[in-house]
What does this fold into?
Amino acid sequence: MSRTFPKTARVVFERESTRYGNFVDNIRLYVRGGCGGMGLPRLGGQGGNGGDVWVMAKNGVTLKQIKDKHPDKRFTAAVGSNSSIHALRGSKGEDAQIFSQTGICVTTDDGRIIGELNNEGDKLLVARGGHGGSLHSGFLPSKGQTRQIRLDLKLIADVGLVGFPNAGKSSLLTALSHAKPKIASYPFTTLRPEIGKITYDDHRQVSVADLPGLIEGAHVNKGMGHKFLKHVERTKQIMFVVDVCGFQLASTTPVRSAFETVLLLTKELELYKEELLSKPSILVINKMDLPEAEDKLRELQEQLENQEESGRHLPDDVKPRSPVHFTNIVPVSASTGFGLSVLKSFIRQSLEEQDVIQTESQRSERLLKLRRQISAPSLPSWGNPHVV
It folds into this structure.
C-alpha cells in the first residue's frame, strides 16, 4: 500500500503539568457504599437505599491528584434516609464519585477486573449501597458493600518505545518531538513515562511514549518490570530502539550485540505477555553516527535475515520461540538527525495501514453477524409442528 506523506513534520510536545511532581500509575482505595435507611414498622414505611460509589473518567485528573487530595484514600457514600410519617419512602443516599483519568483499569485487591475507563465520561460501579429497611427485612436496613480496589493506569499512545537502558530512547523522543526528558550517559535516566506528539503538516498527530528501560528479567518484575511492561499493552504499535554497537548494563553483566539485544527485548515481551508480539513493530537502529556503525548495521541485517543460524550459539533463555519480524527497519542517529524524516513517514504509514486493516476487520465481523441473524430467523414454537 503506497501513500504520499509530508516531507517535513512539525513536532509539538505536550507534557502534563509539573505541579504534581512524581508520577503515580497505581493507587489502592477503600470504598464503601452507604447503609440503607430504617423502615417504619407501624406504617409499613421503607427506608431509602444507601448511596453507591462510582469511579468516573475525567480529563485533566491524575492519580497523583487523587492521592494528594485524599491522603486517607477512603471513599464512602451517604446513608439512605429513614422512613417517617412525612415521607414513608426514604430517599436514596448521595452517591460518592471518584474522578480519575482515562486509561484506567479498575481491579479488586485479588486482581479481578471490574472494568476499564477508556473515554471521558465512562464510569464504573465499585461499591453498591445497602437496601433500606422494609417489610421483607423486618424494617432493618442492610450495610453497604465494602471493598478495596486498585486504579491501575495503562498509558494510551500510538507508539511505545521499547529498549534497554541507554539505547537512546529519550534522545530519539527529543529529536522526534522536541520533548525534554532527562538524558545522560548512565543507564537509568527515564524513571517515568514521557509522551511526545508528532504533528504533521496536515495536522495529523501521533503520540509517542518513552517508557522506562527494560533489563533482562523484566518479565519477572526485575528493574522497572511490570511497572513498565503494562504500559506497552495499550500502545497501538511497538518501536524497538537498539544501540547499533550493542549494550552492557554493567561491568559485571555480559556485553550484548545489537542482534542479541533485539532477541532479548522480544523474549522479555514474549514472557510477560505473548500477545504483545502480535502488535505491528518497527525496529530503530540508533547511534548510526558512531564509528564502525555501518559495519555493525550490515552485520545486524545479515543476522536478522538468518535468525535461526545466527542465534544457534545463543542459550535458549535468550531466544524467543518465534522469529522476529518488523514492518520496517530504520537506521537513525538521534543526535545528528540522520534517518528521522524517514522514520516519521514509516510511523505514520504503519499506523494508517493498521487502521485500514482494523476497519475492514470490524466491517467483516458486523457483516458476518448480520448474515447469521438473517439466515437463522426465530420461529414461534406454536407455529412449528416439529418443535416439542
